[in-house]
Amino acid sequence: MLTFKVAELEFFVEHGTTIQQICAQYDTPIIFGCRAAKCGACIVRILDGGKNLGSIGTCEQAVLDILAAEPDHRLACQCTVLGDVTVEVG
Amino acid sequence: MRTHKEELYVNIRPRSGDEASIPLSNLSSDLSSWNYELYGVQLIEVPLLVLKETRHEFDHASQQVEFNQFGPLESLGMLATTQTGFLPKHAPDYRFPGPLQTITDLCHQAGAHYARHDEAEFRAWLTMVSTTFATSVVDTDEIYSYATKLPQERQKMLMVPLILMSHMWRQGSPVLAPATGPSAMPKPLHELLITLSEATGIIPRFNQILMTMLAWKLDGKSDGDLLSHRDVTSLEQMSPYFWLMNQNNQSELDLNRAFFAMEAFGVPIYGWSCFALECAAQNNLKGAVQALKMIWAAMKNVYTTTKTLMPRIDADEFRKLQVTGGWIEDEVTAVASGYQLPFMLMLDALFQVNFSHPGVIAAKQNNLRFVPQHWQEFFHMIRSHCPSLKDWIQEKNNSELTEAYTDCVQLFALFRSMHKYVGGQVIKGATTTGRKFDSPDENYMQFMEEMEALVNDTTAAADFFKG
Fold this sequence. Notes:
The structure holds two protein chains of two kinds. Chain A is an alpha+beta fold. Chain A has two helices and seven strands. In chain A, the strands form two sheets. In chain A, strands 2-1-7-4-5 form a five-stranded mixed β-sheet, with no helix packed on it. A two-stranded antiparallel sheet of chain A has the order 3-6. The longest helix of chain A is centred in the C-terminal third of the chain and has 9 residues, at about 60-65. Chain A is globular. Chain B is mostly helical. Chain B has helices spanning about 70-80, 100-115, 120-135, 140-150, 150-170, 190-200, 210-215, 230, 250-280, 285-310, 315-325, 340-350, 360-370, 375-385, 390-395, 400-425, 440-460; strands spanning about 10-15, 20-25, 35-40, 40-45, 50, 215-220, 240, 325-330, 330. In chain B, about 55% of the residues lie in helices and about 5% in strands. A three-stranded antiparallel β-sheet of chain B has the order 2-1-5. A two-stranded antiparallel sheet of chain B has the order 3-4. In chain B, strands 6-7 form a two-stranded antiparallel ribbon.
């Protein structure tokens, strides 16, 4: 099992679970909008384990660029948990 | 067109309470270290271009101003202030002379009665208190006499509680289906509202100008207190006002706060947008790049605060507001629509966003009826400014300038996309969003379709630069 942490909350999840799946099941402070990298509502800052979230796609990168996001930011809707990860709402 | 010739000044850290102004020529474009936190999210402290404090209280009906003669910055100074933009310079003041004070008190009480969701009880109560009010004065003409002697700005303010009560009376209970057909509050409240409407030229219906611009209160600020930019961006200081309270006094507050955030954090946009246009007229590339970077930073704050606040809105309370304020007689009114907000009008005008969807065009036209005439004329001047920002930037063919412009347009489009998806979750389940639909699904689909068109139209404002 892997660990996904956000805002003092800790979840133990299977490898390959998406953050969307976690947030659909539990109440977290992450806000979702389009869930398709079109609106940026779900932006999070990676505090630890950034490399465990899969690669950044073209659409996600475009939104992060528009928001001038720092390199440690991701769109939660595009992230899959592949190792232990800690994030906060961006 | 006239442009500003004197040296301009900038208030560099308005959030920190630092009132010191520096010449614009000394301002750095680097905003990276000017961060602060609100609701747990990082925001940027955006410097304010100092406007000449010449804000006028225009006579809504009769006074004509040719804003073209004055140019963007000077015109803006007539309508807005450095610290609060188009929001009032002073905290909204609902203290009125003589028997008129009773109107405010009644509205506060009406909100509590209305929240009981008992149509018959509410109407019986309002009838009773209206009668008591009428008999408390020597004759009802005394009330009209007090009202007609008020300055026009105060008359507009007095309309706020009357309009709120009028909608509550009409709907009876916020949990019923939207009421249609004619309805008038008991005398003398209805007559007073009509008298004021005729005197001010303001349509006596619920609207955004009323809700966002006038019906709010800040903890620590008394009615009529002078406000700073720090005050209006201290959203955590907002407290519930007037109506549609739930048991926790929160839902209406969060709705109000979300709309208010756009205006409050949008304040820097006005000065920098006007400066950008004047830079275009003066062929000042460096100034225009700086202005666009500041506009971008302010828009980022608007994006972040709106995204954070919108999910806090209670969807049920939102629907009650739409149902209550959305209809009068058989005609739709505007309610919680951002099309009336100066922040939105400014960005659409500056970037010359052209609307393509018939529903959006109709909604915008409907909403503009509630926007003060002088504001409309000002934004028309911004939109038709010659040269337009877009044309001038295309002509300059400068990569830094083009990038700064495109960054702003893309962020504006992303804001609308975020509003579409996050706002869509709030309106799901409603049968009215300024229009009445047979089913919540129909309402939701129409909202999503129109918002998608709006996103595309906004994105197209920078298509000019592709290839």
